[in-house]
Each structure stands twice: as structure tokens, then as C-alpha cells.
């Protein structure tokens, strides 16, 4: 019975870290660097729970629903609060509140679609909310270097990417062998220690791969729509058809 509950423990840890991240951006705490690191560690928990569930054959509808609810808090609400607290508070309330609210709303819509619509093998449809939340949480740490207009636009674009039909690679299917489960707590502990000791530096470093992942799907979508690419694809298909005809003859 306990074995079946292990994946849910990681999911609850994900939710707990999201709540801590929100608390850490309250004015009396004002620690956005550590709050962003909590979101990053929550991403690790989110990546581990599904793999552990598959390794232990403990997948369930309960775990799936708990995971979605946790993700809305940890990767929707928490990153939006971090960005609002460090960058948007001085703005006109209308755009600041709307864009802050739009981010978790789009995240919730994306998760709802994920739960009821069959995706494509090996791909997510729309930017996954953990990646979007990770970008927003770490992007907020650059609020002194980046104009607020860019932060607003970036948050809006990430919100729209979550509810888009753009395909993103799915790395969640990479499993963990059952005999290697013991390594997971070790990785989690090391990540938490590094996150607490170097919250600012580590968060900013992790911003780079996260934003590249978000841009990857956008680039692939643009490439697919370019006329030249369509012509090359059609030419390749015709060549392949010609080769197959020769072989069949």
C-alpha cells in the first residue's frame, strides 16, 4: 500500500514547494530568488512522480488529477505571483492584474485539455505548464536588466503558447529502472541543497535551457509554415515515392 503512495508523495512535495514559493514573495519575506528556486525544485518533483509511478506500476487516476491540481499552483499561480511581486506592482493595475491572472488561467486550460484530449506520441500539444512556469519564475529574476514591457510581453506569449497547438518534445516517457529508484531521493536532496545554497545563480543558469525549450516549439511551428519548407517536404515525398515505385517494379 505504501509503495503505491510514493508517487503521490512527490506530487504533494511539488504542491508544497509551490505554496512556499508564493509565501516567499510576500512583502514581509521578499525572497524572489529562493521562490524561483522552489519552482525549479518543484519541476524536479513533477518530473520524478510520473517516472516513479511507472517504475512501481502505481499509476492511477487519483495521481493524475492530483498532479494537475498541484501543477496549477506550482507552475501557474506561483510563477505569476513571483513576476507580479518583482516587476508588475508599479504598473497600471489593469494590465498587471490581467496578465498576472491570464498566466495561471491558460495553464489550467492547458492541463484540462491534456487530461481529456489524446496527444501525439512523443509530443505535448502546447507548451507544458512546468516549462512555462519555470521560464516566468526565472525570467522575473532579470527584472532589473530587462524592460518591464518585455517581461509583460514574454508572460503573455508564454500564456498563449500553453494553449496553442504547437508541438513540444515529451521527455516524460524516459523511465527509471525499478532497481534505480533509490537514486531518486539522493538526486532530490542534492538538488534541494544546491538550490538553497545557490538560489540566484542556479535559477538564472536554468533559465537558459528552459527558454530554449519554449522557443524550440515556436521555431518548429514557424519552419513548418514556411513555403520553402513545404516545397522541400513535398519534393522529398515525391522522391521517396519514386524510389518505392522503382523497387516495386
From TrEMBL:
InterPro entries: CDP-alcohol_PTase-I, CDP-diaglyc--ser_O-PTrfase, CDP-OH_P_trans, CDP-OH_PTrfase_TM_dom, CDP_ALCOHOL_P_TRANSF_CS. Keywords: Lipid biosynthesis, Lipid metabolism, Membrane, Phospholipid biosynthesis, Phospholipid metabolism, Transferase, Transmembrane, Transmembrane helix. It is found in: Endomembrane system. It comes from Paenibacillus mendelii. Belongs to the CDP-alcohol phosphatidyltransferase class-I family. It comes from the Bacteria. Signal peptide: none annotated. GO terms for molecular function: CDP-diacylglycerol-serine O-phosphatidyltransferase activity. It holds the Pfam family CDP-OH_P_transf. It catalyses: a CDP-1,2-diacyl-sn-glycerol + L-serine = a 1,2-diacyl-sn-glycero-3-phospho-L-serine + CMP + H(+). This is CDP-diacylglycerol--serine O-phosphatidyltransferase. It is a multi-pass membrane protein. The keyword Transferase applies. NCBIfam families: pssA. Residues 228-249 are annotated as: Disordered. Its EC number is 2.7.8.8. Gene3D superfamilies: 1.20.120.1760. The chain crosses the membrane at residues 7-26, 94-112, 124-142, 148-168, 180-199, 205-222.
Amino acid at each position: 500500500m505504501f509503495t503505491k503512495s510514493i508517487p503521490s508523495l512527490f506530487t504533494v512535495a511539488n504542491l508544497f514547494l509551490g505554496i512556499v514559493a508564493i509565501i516567499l514573495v510576500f512583502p514581509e519575506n521578499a525572497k524572489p530568488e529562493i521562490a524561483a528556486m522552489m519552482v525549479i525544485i518543484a519541476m524536479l518533483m513533477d518530473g520524478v512522480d510520473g517516472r516513479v509511478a511507472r517504475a512501481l506500476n502505481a499509476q492511477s487516476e487519483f495521481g493524475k488529477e492530483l498532479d494537475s491540481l498541484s501543477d496549477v499552483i506550482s507552475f501557474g499561480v506561483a510563477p505569476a505571483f513571483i513576476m507580479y511581486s518583482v516587476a508588475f506592482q508599479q504598473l497600471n493595475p489593469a494590465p498587471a492584474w490581467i496578465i498576472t491572472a491570464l498566466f495561471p488561467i491558460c495553464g489550467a486550460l492547458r492541463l484540462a485539455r491534456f487530461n481529456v484530449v489524446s496527444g501525439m506520441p512523443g509530443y505535448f500539444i502546447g507548451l507544458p505548464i512546468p516549462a512555462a512556469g519555470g521560464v516566468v519564475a526565472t525570467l522575473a529574476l532579470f527584472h532589473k536588466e530587462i524592460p518591464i514591457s518585455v517581461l509583460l510581453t514574454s508572460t503573455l506569449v508564454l500564456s498563449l503558447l500553453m494553449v496553442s497547438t504547437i508541438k513540444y518534445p515529451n521527455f516524460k516517457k524516459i523511465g527509471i529502472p525499478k532497481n534505480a529508484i533509490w537514486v531518486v531521493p539522493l538526486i532530490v536532496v542534492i538538488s534541494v541543497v544546491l538550490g538553497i545554497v545557490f538560489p540566484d545563480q542556479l535559477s538564472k543558469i536554468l533559465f537558459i535551457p528552459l527558454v530554449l525549450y519554449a522557443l524550440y516549439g515556436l521555431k518548429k511551428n514557424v519552419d513548418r509554415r514556411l513555403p520553402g519548407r513545404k516545397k522541400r517536404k513535398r519534393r522529398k515525398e515525391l522522391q521517396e515515392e519514386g524510389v518505392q515505385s522503382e523497387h516495386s517494379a
